[in-house]
Amino acid sequence: MCLLPLAAAAVAAPRAPLRLLNRGLAAAMSTAGPLKSVDYEVFGRVQGVCFRMYTEDEARKIGVVGWVKNTSKGTVTGQVQGPEDKVNSMLECSGLI
């Protein structure tokens, strides 16, 4: 089970989306299995607790691609793409399902 790190007070974050993998979409999608793409929005205390950095690190470890960013509503929104089993693993690890 992956646990989300808890950090100090909320700070303003850049609005530019983060690329989750340097290898690119083609490298992550080079599987013969079914592919999956999931859009998500996370509510609660998710800004200022390193959620975006945690998500980026986990995506690299698991082998999926996508993006994640803070919103003006105080939530975090993003998209994760890749082989179905890896996307499901990413969602479970990040507490999104």
Highlighted features:
3 strands, Acylphosphatase, Acylphosphatase-like_dom_sf, alpha+beta, disordered N terminus, acylphosphatase activity, 3 helices, single chain, 23% strand, 3-stranded antiparallel sheet, Alpha-Beta Plaits, 97 residues
Summarize the structure.
The protein is an alpha+beta fold and 97 residues long.
Structure description:
- With 97 residues, this protein is of the alpha+beta class.
- The chain has a domain at 45-94: Alpha-Beta Plaits, CATH 3.30.70.100.
- The chain has 3 helices and 3 strands; from the N terminus they run αβαββα.
- It has helices spanning 25-28, 51-62, 84-93, and strands at residues 35-42, 65-70, 76-83.
- The protein has a 3-stranded antiparallel sheet with strand order 1-3-2.
- α2 runs antiparallel to α3 (84-93).
- It is elongated, with a radius of gyration of 13 Å.
Total number of strands: 3
Helicity, in percent?
Answer: 25-40%
Q: Report the portion of residues in β strands.
A: 15-25%
Report the order of strands and helices.
Answer: HEHEEH
The pLDDT mean sits at 74
- The CATH architecture of the domain at 45-94 can be given as 2-Layer Sandwich
- Summing up helix and strand content along with how strands pair, one would put the structural category as alpha+beta
Low-confidence stretches: 1-22
- What is CATH's topology name of the domain at 45-94? Alpha-Beta Plaits
CATH class of the domain at 45-94: Alpha Beta
Distance between the termini: 12 Å
* Lateral arrangement of strands in the main beta sheet: 1-3-2
* Cα-based radius of gyration, to the nearest Å: 13 Å
Major sheet attributes: 3 strands, antiparallel
Overall shape: it is: elongated
| Contiguous helical run count | 3
Catalytic activity: an acyl phosphate + H2O = a carboxylate + phosphate + H(+)
Family: Belongs to the acylphosphatase family.
Active site: 52, 70
EC number: 3.6.1.7
